[in-house]
Amino acid sequence: MDRMDHTDHLDHGARMDHEDRGPGGGDRWDGSDAFERQLAQLMHRAQQPAPFEARHREALRAGVRARRRVRTARRAAGSVLAVAGLGLGLFLWPHGHTDGRPTAPHPRPMISPSPAPSTSPSQSPTESPSAPPSTTSPATTTNSSAPARTRTPSGPPTATAGTAHGATASYRPPSATATAPAAGGTTAAATAPVSEPAEPSGEPSSTIGATG
Amino acid sequence: MEQTRAGEYDAFVAARWSVLFHLARLLTGGDRHRAEDLLQESLVKLWFVWPKIADEAPEAYVRKVLARAAARSARRRWWGERPVEQLPEVAAAGDMSATVAERSRLEAALGQLTPQQRAAVVLRYYQDLPDRQVAETLGCPVGTARSHAARGVARLRRLLADVIEPVG
């Protein structure tokens, strides 16, 4: 009852506030004409008494119960979905970890001047020293491709080490080439095909090309 | 606690049922069954928020739910309404009182409006709400609400020209 008094008071207050604005005084009645006023009266007049019957009360109760059931079911379904999603995520977690490994090789640097000679000398000493044609063929290509390098260590054979180091810095396979100058005398056996042409004094340039 | 809540809720519904049902009926263009469904749906929603808004303005909440649901449901479903040139429900001279005939004519004319126009007109002229509150209730800008109401009234002016006689 208190509530009803409160709402009635609110309604009455709103109406009074509206009437304070009055016809032509507020934004509701601004510019209103006779038709609009009669339309408002007609809408109020058209109201017919509609008592709140027992069937309405029962329907409301049933509606509240149904909505409560729907809410409960929705909440339960949400919980089940959340748990299922969590479980699925945990189940798929290790697979996702293994699949995430990179399978492709690392990209090689594209700035090397000639990758062909760098690969072939690395293969030739390791695979078989008895395959001089493979080393000689890149040697010839190196000569043609990088004449500037062959020109720099044009001095004594000791410059071979310097050129070898330079080659190690710029090219990938340092192992094969590094052993050549570091081993010194041993390279004679390891790089037999390489050292064979080294017998003439003018040939170290080709050796450098092979290592470089 | 639950008993108190239910008692207050029942008292509110019993006291405001008639007004709210008439509002729902105007909002649905006179469809009695749809108005009952709409009002019941709104009051069920009110039940679940009753503890929060019982001390504030429960009727304003129901009004907002009613108006928005009326506009939304009319957009979502087709209720078999067809716009016609002539109003189909013409009151016979002797079988209905003048008030009932007037009401039927009003509801039929309201049924010719779009749901948004009808809601704006009803809120403005039946609920006596200013434009700002109409817009707030419908959830649209003030200019839009004003436009809906103006177009609705313009159409009602044509439809109800013989019911509401021009004064002066």
From TrEMBL, chain A:
The keyword Transmembrane helix applies. Residues 119-206 have a biased composition (Low complexity). Keywords: Membrane, Transmembrane, Transmembrane helix. Residues 1-32, 99-212 are annotated as: Disordered. Residues 104-118 have a biased composition (Pro residues). It comes from the Bacteria. The chain crosses the membrane at residues 76-93. This is Cellulase. It comes from Streptomyces capoamus. The lineage of its organism: Bacteria, Bacillati, Actinomycetota, Actinomycetes, Kitasatosporales.
TrEMBL record, chain B:
InterPro entries: RNA_pol_sigma-70-like, RNA_pol_sigma-70_dom, RNA_pol_sigma-E_actinobac, RNA_pol_sigma70_r2, RNA_pol_sigma70_r4_t2, RNA_pol_sigma_r2, RNA_pol_sigma_r3/r4-like, WH-like_DNA-bd_sf. It holds the Pfam family Sigma70_r4_2. The keyword Hydrolase does not apply. Residues 105-156 form the RNA polymerase sigma factor 70 region 4 type domain. GO terms for molecular function: DNA binding; sigma factor activity. Keywords: DNA-binding, Sigma factor, Transcription, Transcription regulation. GO terms for biological process: DNA-templated transcription initiation. Residues 20-79 form the RNA polymerase sigma-70 region domain. Belongs to the sigma-70 factor family. ECF subfamily. PANTHER family: ECF RNA POLYMERASE SIGMA FACTOR SIGM, RNA POLYMERASE ECF-TYPE SIGMA FACTO. This is RNA polymerase subunit sigma-24. It comes from Streptomyces capoamus.
